[in-house]
Write a structure and sequence with these properties.
350 residues, alpha/beta, D-tyrosyl-trna(Tyr) Deacylase, Chain: A, five-stranded mixed β-sheet, 19% helix, flat
Length: 350
């Protein structure tokens, strides 16, 4: 049994730096060939400016390019992000010459800009019609009573948009997988339910990631078996009863991610404070701080440690809701095993 999860086109990144680059487009369309733009370096005053390398502009074009550089510099230097370190290089698509540059030879931490290149490579290599397949494997077909001997294996191949539940029947979800199993006659699994993420052989965390980022949604582990973005919502709200401590709510129905609430009420006029910490190798969220009477609620998005096991637990809930029971445990499996112990899908039934 398999489920295709549709590839969704990457969202456009609407950041101020893109607006600056867009200023170059009219010039690129009108000027052939484009010439050299010069950027002022407001950040590193003690370092010499570097002239852009490009072809000599034709008469009448130089002034336009100088105006372009001036507009870009003005947009940066006059913004609230003027103190930031900018790296820009505008290159002509017609002849490859440099139209404008600013710190273009400096090294930068790419951060989320890397998603642009990752998405571009994925579209180029896989194509826009590529579909990820998340499969359920067993050793045998269900018998006449709907019983499956052995384990039930939920095998992920990196679908980025798998969710636990969806109102859209065409959107891949664990609930739909459970419906498909029920339709194929499965009523009971004698063995374990295993969430298998071994399709990815690399590390769950990227090289150079800051440990202080790992608890937040943007530091979620890269697992081949991911669900709901590998993140949970944590909300901090006032109690419905006067005089009681604030309430912490975690959007995880399985109880896999829990919170220890150490928040207290403060006197009126005190500035509210909230501290949040999730361990690097667990899913217990420590919450502390103070709420004053009348304080509005707050929310945060936290990453889930060991997402493959969490996905398996959510799948277990989906199976139970559909009337399918599992006799064994809920486990997770990765690629850090001897070759003889790794899952071989070709030897199983899908």
């Amino acid at each position: 049994m398999n489920m295709d999860s549709s590839y969704q086109r990457a969202r456009r990144l609407m950041v101020k730096s893109f607006l600056i680059v867009l200023l170059a487009l009219p010039v690129l369309l009108l000027l052939r060939p484009p010439g050299t733009g010069t950027a002022k370096d407001k950040i590193q005053q003690d370092e010499p400016k570097q002239a852009a390398v490009s072809k000599e502009p034709a008469r009448g074009q130089s002034a336009g390019l100088e105006n372009l550089a001036e507009h870009i510099d003005k947009a940066i230097d006059g913004s609230e992000l003027a103190a930031a370190r900018w790296g820009i290089c505008v290159i002509s698509m017609s002849d490859g010459s440099v139209v404008y540059q600013r710190n273009s030879d400096r090294l930068f931490t790419p951060a989320s800009n890397m998603k642009i290149y990752t998405t571009g490579v994925a579209l180029d290599l896989l194509g826009s019609d590529y579909r990820w397949r998340t499969s359920v494997y067993t050793n045998t077909q269900p018998d006449a009573s709907g019983r499956v001997q052995g384990d039930l294996i939920l095998y992920g191949r990196g679908a980025p948009d798998l969710v636990a539940r969806s109102k859209d029947e065409n959107h891949g979800s664990l609930a739909k997988l459970a419906d498909d199993l029920y339709a194929h006659g499965v009523r009971h699994v004698a063995g374990n339910l295993v969430g298998d993420e071994s399709y990815f052989r690399g590390n769950l965390l990227g090289d150079g990631w800051q440990w202080t980022d790992l608890q937040w949604y943007f530091g979620a582990e890269a697992s081949a078996l991911s669900v709901d973005g590998n993140e949970v919502d944590v909300n901090f709200v006032p109690s419905s009863k006067a005089g009681e401590s604030p309430v912490v709510r975690v959007s995880d129905p399985t109880g896999y991610v829990t919170a220890e609430n150490h928040m207290a009420l403060a006197k009126s006029g005190v500035r509210p404070t909230i501290g949040v910490y999730r361990g690097l190798s667990d899913n217990t969220i420590q919450v502390w701080g103070e709420f004053t009477p009348g304080t509005k609620g707050f929310g945060a998005r936290l990453a889930v440690h060991n997402p493959a096991l969490w996905t398996a637990k959510l799948f277990l809930d989906a199976l139970k809701a559909r009337g399918i029971t599992v006799g064994g445990e809920t486990l997770a499996r990765n690629s850090r095993l001897p070759q003889s112990q790794r899952l071989d899908p070709t030897q199983l039934m899908e």
